[in-house]
Amino acid sequence: MLNVKLKVLGVTVCLEIVRGFCLGRTLKLSEQLSPPRIQYGGCKLHQGFVNPPLLIKVGLPDINPGRVKLAKSLVEKAIKMHKIFTIQGPYPVIRAALKARGWIEQRMPQQVQQRLNSDSRSNDAEEDNSEETEKEKEPDRLHSLMSRLVRNEMVYFYWTNRRDAISTNNLQKEQIINHFAKAGSFTTKAGLCVNLRNLHWFDTADPDSFFPRCYKLAAQDEKHAFIEDYRRTACTSLLKYVVEKDQNIQCKPLVPSETVTTALKVCQEYLESLEHGDIDKSLETLLTQEQWEGFLNSYYLVAHGGAHIEKSENFVSSCKAMLQKLEKVSPQLGIDGTQNIWIVKPGAKSRGRGIKCEKRLDQILRLVNIDPMLIKESKWVVQKYIEKPFLVHDTKFDVRQWFLVTDWNPLTVWFYKKCYLRFSTQPYSLDTLDSSVHLCNNSIQKHLRPSHQRHHCIPPHNMWLDDQFKAFLASQGKEALWESVVVLGMKAAVIHALKTAQDLIESRKNTFELYGADFMLGMILQPWLIEINASPTMAPSTCVTAQLCTAVQEDTLRVVLDRRVDRSANTGDFQLIYRQAAVEVPQYLGINLVVEGFAVKNPCVFPPLKSSQLSSSKRGGAVKEKESAPEKVQPLPKVIQKAQENKTSSSEASPALPPEPSISRVAIHLPVTVLSVDGGSNFEHFSKKHAEVLKVQPTTATEKKQASLRLVMFNSNSPVK
After folding, report:
1. With 0-12 CB in 10 A as exposed, 13-18 as middle and 19+ as buried, what is 393?
2. Contact between 684 and 678 (Cβ < 8 Å)
3. What is the mean pLDDT of residues 15-38?
4. What percent of the chain has pLDDT over 70?
5. What is the reaction catalyzed (predicted)?
6. CA separation (Å) from 703 to 642, 698, 707?
7. Mean pLDDT estimate for the chain
8. Please, are residues 528 and 212 in contact by the beta-carbon 8 Å criterion?
């Protein structure tokens, strides 16, 4: 007799294998199991190996009839109320909150769940929710039984950590899902970079006032624009260096003063181009390629190598005056600093992977050219690094801010009142470009040990609640700036970014999506949007995220589910900050076109025009007879007809070729009506032209003296639609 345990349909059962006979509930191995095989102690038992056939005694867990009755009752109620849900990914908070509302889960097959989770870990554009996620409890017997009972029912709520896990084209109208289709237009670094350049079509705001300038290096025009921007920034950085550098420091002069003169000239040309709108003028017209290389080498010696400029004290006043002029037209002058540092990012990766900081132009271009696949897919972006951020105890940080979109037409945005700060493990310094100093992603910093030089008020887990940051601002007398500058600026930046992507998203009712925006704060606490993440991580990696991530998931369900039933329901810490006026979308009528009109009465018959075969060949063929005209035209005078007949007969009798008659072409322009959709289904009459017959020029002097023929054809009573 062998005692083994097998897992059948997710339930662990005890099998007692006996030879020849068995008491109680049994399964005959040769008939019930396929393939008829059991492995025990490294030995495989098959039907053919044992005679007589094996019988399996199954010791199933006791089934409580009362529990079965309760499960059936709850399932019937849930099906009637359309409360069946499916979750892909580790979201224990969402699962528990839905069950508390009477929803029943239809669990995905284990193989499908594992495959989707594996794909989500390799997905570049979305954050990973599989790491450091609290272990979910095993489902109790009641929920397992109910999940089994609804395995063939329609799912009415999907929560996934991948946008392509469920195809929205296959969903019914009443099914809810937590991802919009084609939202990658603003949740990737490259997409956000391109979209915000079109902000002037949607709003009067300037993207340079909240989004550090960014370029896609795969496009040649943008690569050229970046090189110009880098050179111009090098000039302004040199002017800042002259103003901010302590002139009392004595060192050997290495760089000639002409370098400052060149920088002032470039900045002046830039101001003039903005004033006069001369978009055709380029920096290459000022300096040749060799001159730019020489200027940048001198700039590197000064800004990066600490070299001194000859007689730099003579240029301080002129540099200050130029910087004041530039400050009026360049909103990002305050974040540029003197090092001209740029951050290079793979355009469709998350969690800080592949991001590097560089400050030399040749190094940036060389770094991008390393991976030709990313160049081919247009995924490399370079963005201006904020060299002068707001620091907390001399440590850099960024802000993770959640927001929720429940509709794209009308655009409806919910802003979460709570956020948290993520610190780097090392004190801030521009002497090194190491990621431990400049990248605040928790996915990077959690693997690093905090520096002993960092302030003791920053916790080892590198995170702060927003309340802790507000207390820090209060200690510096800046508490009021949190609401008036930081929060207000973050709301505006989110709305601007969403407006530029509105036309690119496939809007669908009963769809929502939670996003995580990352911000940096400037010296005056002005927020700068860095990127927007789809499927932001909900991993309770620290005590801060364990508190806030749980709350934001529960409040998301309050907005999405509870408010559908009761418009006055509590939405937690979500605040409705923007709701656009609905735009009526015209109904699509298909491509079947209908032409309506009236039959043309009394068509005009043109007199026949004859010519020789040679003349016809010269004109590329015989003259085709034109269509009938709307009105009857007066016949030609008899004198002209007779002259024409005589001319034709003489040409046939004589072998010499007569001069070719001048025959004018008839241009008929029919009325045209063009459909125009402008905010609705309005028809706009584009143009209506009447048909005209141009002049037929007489070919002889006699005909010129006798008459001139002008035919005008029109029929205003025969419109064409």
Report:
1. middle
2. yes
3. 41
4. 64
5. L-glutamyl-[protein] + glycine + ATP = glycyl-L-glutamyl-[protein] + ADP + phosphate + H(+)
6. 11, 5, 6
7. 77
8. yes
CATH topology for the 185-210+389-579 domain = D-amino Acid Aminotransferase; Chain A, domain 1 (3.30.470)
Q: Which residue has the higher pLDDT, 156 or 253?
A: 156
Q: Which residues, including other chains, have CB under 8 Å from residue 3's CB and lie 6 or more apart?
A: 14, 15, 16, 17
Distances (CA, A) of 485 to 379, 523, 577: 33, 12, 16
Cα separation, 22 vs 251, whole angstroms: 99
The CA–CA distances, whole Å, from 481 to 419, 420, 527, 575 equal 16, 17, 11, 20
Q: Spell out the residues 6+ positions from residue 299 whose beta carbon is closer than 8 angstroms to its own.
A: 234, 237, 238, 259, 340
- Rounded to whole angstroms, how far apart are CA atoms 122 and 109? 20
List pLDDT tens digits, range 666-694.
444 444 444 444 444 443 443 444 444 34
Q: Is the CA virtual torsion 456, 461, 463, 464 positive or negative?
A: negative
Q: How confident is the model at residue 151 (pLDDT cuts 50, 70, 90)?
A: very high
Q: Is the pLDDT of residue 280 over 70?
A: no
Taking the CA atoms of the chain, what radius of gyration do you get in angstroms?
A: 39
d(CA 401, CA 388): 21
Say how many residues make up the chain. 721
Alpha helix locations (H) across 453-502? Answer: 466-475, 481, 488-501
Best CA proximity match to 101, nearest among 654, 564, 656: 564
How far apart, in whole angstroms, are the C-alpha atoms of residue 403 and residue 559?
12
19: its two tokens:
């030879």
> Which are the contacts of 128, defined by CB distance < 8 A and separation ≥ 6?
120, 121, 350, 351, 443, 537
Q: Which of 343, 511, 299, 557 is nearest to 412 (CA)?
A: 511
CATH 3.30.470.20 domain residues, the chain: 185-210+389-579
Burial of 39 (0-12, 13-18, 19+ CB in 10 A): exposed
In angstroms, rounded to a whole number, what is the distance separating the alpha carbons of residues 266 and 287?
Answer: 9
User: Cα separation of 308 and 250, whole Å?
Assistant: 9
CA dihedral 35, 37, 39, 45 (to 10 degrees): -160
**Contact call for residues 210 and 527 (beta carbons, < 8 A):** yes
Say what the pLDDT of residue 495 is. Answer: 97
Q: Name 17's bridge partners.
A: 2, 56
Q: Are 495 and 413 in contact (CB under 8 A)?
A: yes
Alpha-carbon distance of 135 to 698, in angstroms, equals 98
Alpha helices in 129-216 (DSSP H): 141-149, 184-187, 189-195
Report the pLDDT value the prediction gives residue 27, as an integer from 0 to 100: 42
CA pair distance 217, 374, nearest whole angstrom: 10
The conformational region for residue 192 under phi > 0 = left, psi -120 to 50 = alpha, else beta, is alpha
Q: What is the 3-state secondary structure (H, E, C) of 317-341?
A: HHHHHHHHHHHHHCCCHHHHCCCCC
Contact between 102 and 156 (Cβ < 8 Å): no
Q: How far is CA 596 from the centre of its chain?
A: 44
Is 295 in contact with 348 (CB distance < 8 Å)? no
Coil, helix or strand at residue 539: coil
